[in-house]
Amino acid sequence: MRFDDRLLTVLNQPAEDRHDAAVRWRQLVDLVARAGSNSASPVVADALEAIRNEARWVEETIRAAAARAVAALPLPLGLLEYFATDALAVSAPILAAAILDEHQWQVVRQAANEETRHFIATLHPELSTEPYVEPAPTTGKVESLSPTPEPAPYAPPSLHEVVERIERRRRLREGPAGPAIEPPAALQAAPLFRWECGPGGEIVWVEGAPRGPLIGRSIARSLGDDRIDQEATRAFAIRAPFRDAVMAIAGGGALAGDWKISAVPAFEPSDGRFAGYRGVALRDVSAPASEMPSRETMPEMLTDPDSLRELVHEIKTPLNAIIGFAEIIEGQYLGPADRGYRDRAAEIVRQAHLLLAAIDDLDFAAKVHSTLGRTRERVDLGALIMRAADEFRRIAVELGVKAEVVRPRGEIAAAVEPELADRLLFRLFNTLVERAERGEHLYLSAQTMNDAPRIAMTRPKSLRDLGEKELFDPTLGGEGVHGRFPLRLARGLARIAGGDLATSRDSFALVFPRA
To answer: Which of 93, 272, 362, 427 has its CA 20 to 30 A from that of 189?
Structure first.
């Protein structure tokens, strides 16, 4: 079947409801993206018109998933123009991957909305801000015309070319500068930097530290006097994430010494090929005891909250992409899928949303930690649980559990941010009620004990025989890991607030400082 015939088949396909319309729209985008030499076909023009007109019936998450799926392809200019008119959340992957000449970028920019124009300007600061004007046709006799050269076959840029492009853009943003002045060693020795390596393991991109001593170093094997943990090399061999592997940099420069590196593997969205690793490095040195926060009161991961918040943002982007692809399978947007695949996709979506909620908690924890030292807010724990009582009962009923909130006696004032106390309360309640057996009766109360305000909740029967290690140790495997992570996270958030998550045989309690 010829390309135009395939496209006509989809164009003539009836769409009886929104689901059918979304499936047809997604198929049109996928076919037009692969038009290649057929881009000038009238049928492609009709398909582009249908894509523009029917986009309003397609949910943004589906449009964004379609954009991610074709972003790595050399797209027809008309399709790029359409995506430039869509929301930036949809068009960003397409525009970031596009390789166009200045005239083509000007055409796309003229079609784009204001938000997208700013994005294009950020990606390509070298482009002229003047609107493109088509040159006037020449008149008179033309002696000779050179034949139009055939366009070179598309070849995606190498990782080296991408790094060079990033460097050029950075220099353009910074503008002309005088002679480079080497900063003092103390300024070069940053406590954290981000890095990326290619599929061979050599570091090709660095941010937050001098590039010279790092570019070309390998995380896949030890070279010369440089050393890398076997944990990292084993993980690299099987394309697995790793955490806190030691990378020792030899020499006497500002970056010399031991670093703890953590990273996740990256894969090409177009064909799934391994593309390297993306990660962070932390200086593995201990601060004086008087300067370090207590491990009991401050989680180690929050020693640099700004970097953590940035890392959280970087994690959410691929996680949202995973959710999008799983929803495509679950919703059969690209055609029929086996029931088993749909069930697995639905489970991926569910688990990914749970992980997103946990990531939001980490982001919030970093935000709270960055404001430590300011005047602490005050909240009445009794009023807090009474406001949430109806919602708690509704959640419990859906799970076949009975929840009862005990009315407090008087005010129970705690020195904690109200938003943090509310978030902790719901996180703990949801974690415990999900582990309760059907028909189990749980009580929740606010009280003052040993001069410390607290919110206490009945410990479900399924957790009563577990000790501290079984409840909180992240190194243990098995089914219990799904219950341990939210409990460990709740305890970490409580400790950020200067409190704790205390346990007894019959209850859990969020303990806060007294106001």
So the answer is: 362
C-alpha span between 363 and 313 (Å, rounded): 8
Does the predicted TM-score (pTM) go above 0.70?
no
d(CA 55, CA 51): 6
Both tokens assigned to 274: 């391994």
489: nearest Cα among 420, 390, 411, 412? 420
Q: How far is 194 from 208, CA to CA, in rounded Å?
A: 6
Mean pLDDT across the stretch 244-267? Answer: 83
**Rounded distance, CA 348 to CA 299, Å?**
28
Q: 390: Cβ–Cβ under 8 A, 6 or more apart, which residues? A: none
Degrees, nearest 5: CA angle 193-235-351:
85
Provide the pairing of β-strand 402-405 with 441-449. Answer: parallel
- H/E/C letters for each residue in 209-229? CCCCCCCCCECCCCCCCCEEC
Cβ neighbours for 19, distance < 8 A, ≥ 6 positions apart: 331
CA 73, 154, 172, 211 dihedral sign is: positive
Q: What is the pLDDT of residue 453?
A: 93
Tokens of 255: 């970056």
Candidates 47, 52, 18, 12; CA nearest to 30 is 47
Give 100 or 173, the one with higher predicted confidence: 100
